[in-house]
Amino acid sequence: MRKYTSVRAFREKFSFLVDRKAFKYNIYFLIFLGVIFLLSAGMGEQIFSPWKVINILFGNSSSFESMIVQSFRMPRIIISILVGVSLAVAGAILQSILRNPLASPDVTGITGGASVAVVLFLALFSNESNVLTVSIHWMPLAAFIGATIIAFLLYILAWKNGLSPFRLVLIGIGLWALTKALTNLFMILGPIVQASQANVWITGSVYGVNWSNVQILAPITIILLIIAFIMTRHLNIQELGEDIALGIGSKVERQRLGMLLLSTALIGSAVAFAGGIGFVGLMAPHIARKLVGSSFGNLLPLSAIIGAVLVLLADTIGRTLFLPVEVPAGVFTATIGAPYFIYLLYRQRNA
Amino acid sequence: MHVLETKDLTLAYGDQIIIDHLNITIPYGEITVLIGSNGCGKSTLLRSMARLLKPQSGAILLDGETMMKLPTKDIAKKLAILPQGPVSPEGLTVLQLVKQGRYPYQKWYQQWSSKDEEIVQNALQSTGMAELSERLVDSLSGGQRQRAWIAMTLAQDTNTILLDEPTTYLDLTHQIEVLDLLFELNEKEKRTIVMVLHDLNLACRYAHHIIAVKDKTVFAHGKPEDIVNRKLVQNVFNLDCEVVADPVFGTPMCVPYGKGRNLNGVKDNIVPVHA
Prior knowledge:
Main location (chain A): membrane
Low-confidence stretches of chain B: none
Distance between the termini of chain A: 33 Å
Largest sheet of chain A: 2 strands, antiparallel
Shape of chain A: globular
Largest sheet of chain B: 6 strands, mixed
CATH architecture of the largest domain in chain B: 3-Layer(aba) Sandwich
Number of helices of chain B: 9
Pfam families (chain A): FecCD
Transmembrane segments (chain A): 25-43, 77-95, 107-126, 138-157, 169-193, 213-231, 260-284, 296-314, 321-346
Keywords (chain A): Cell membrane, Membrane, Transmembrane, Transmembrane helix, Transport
Organism (chain A): Lysinibacillus telephonicus
CATH architecture of chain A: Orthogonal Bundle
Oligomer: heterodimer
């Protein structure tokens, strides 16, 4: 009968209420992620069994096998997981502060902002022979700045005696369209080679990432995640609406701004390394919500894991199914995500 | 003991003054009901008393201190508000909702102490929601849902509870159910309750104290038996009526005129039983 377990430690200095069902789902999906992880590491032109992969990871293998798995596949897998986690958590946060299940990094225009910045970056910093005049390492920073600018624009434009979720969504969709248009404009104006390069990136791909990318992204993601998990109880009351949140003692505006920045940072860092892998931030929290409800202590971890599963699955399929051609992961997430978005809109029509 | 009063309070939306220089004290440990016609500012007044609306000038005092200067979490431990028609997010259970009432007492690493548990359980018990605590809020009936929200405000463990039209959208049975619950909370736990009600007759039944709002200020306030009469209804609601004794409780009951099933109204040909 009891569905909850009270966890208390150190004379109740630490105390939480754990939902057993949600806890189980988290474990299931974590195991599922582990399975995909092993399969993904074993798949490609050289195929290894999951058992073999484990052996390779523990160093019992030839240097050739180790190189394929450790140097080529592993960074890509880890980046996929980090990006999936970031986008999903950012999506869940946006859905809470906007009180709208359709809100996501894409629909608010924040992903688009990052994409514009990248295309602009490519257009500005390359010479006639399409060679970048500055280091490619600056590109992620450009993406991050673009995302933040759009988030601030969103915030400023939607601000009128406070921040109404409804206005935020409408303006977000407007910004989404604007960034799309700007991206196209810069691509048409720029050289054709860059256009195709940028296009792969915008669609979202973890192609060609390496361990140094992991070294940058991993700490950022982990720190942001820790902040997100500390914020869960604020996210919970944001969902109850502004009046309730205020009445219950929350500093609503300040928290909303903080959370918006948090989600921007998550999106910016994800987009910087993997481009606009679309609809993950929409789908992952949604699936999680269906399974464990909307209490953020349950929702946030499960969204994160599902996000990781989605991106890793999409990338694994993308790089193995049509060999030797690689299909960007974003193509697959969009193929599932876009109909999902339409389905959500369809369901909302009666609401 | 937490006393709520307004001092020279002026409320406005932009240039439009809603309440003008109002001084009033909410009696401690009683049920106070704000009445008035639509748009008279009674809800605005209630919201401002819960610091959801900043006064244009003047102040709300909580225990003699200006509310806008108090930390919002401290206020949340003394005073709870249930706004009108709250909407619960999809997929939240009653327990998960009620638990949110503990927010002002919690830290991120301390979210379910024994005390939290005890108070949440009490809130569920006294609202009769204990059996339904695992149910999703969206799956409940209107009355149950409102009781769940009231349980959440109870979990805040405050002495004063403000409610903005807690009976809106409820059928008569559920209106009585919710008001009975609030009365019990007042009677058994000595909580001060302030609410906005539309139904004047129910207001007279449950309130110890009525505040009638009109023309940006308080038209009258006091015990229903002392202040609710034909003249008050005419002035505050702009409605002609008879005020008789409620046949069940003997509290004032307003029977409005109007056309009924007679185009000329009733005033000319029917003499009221007693005036």
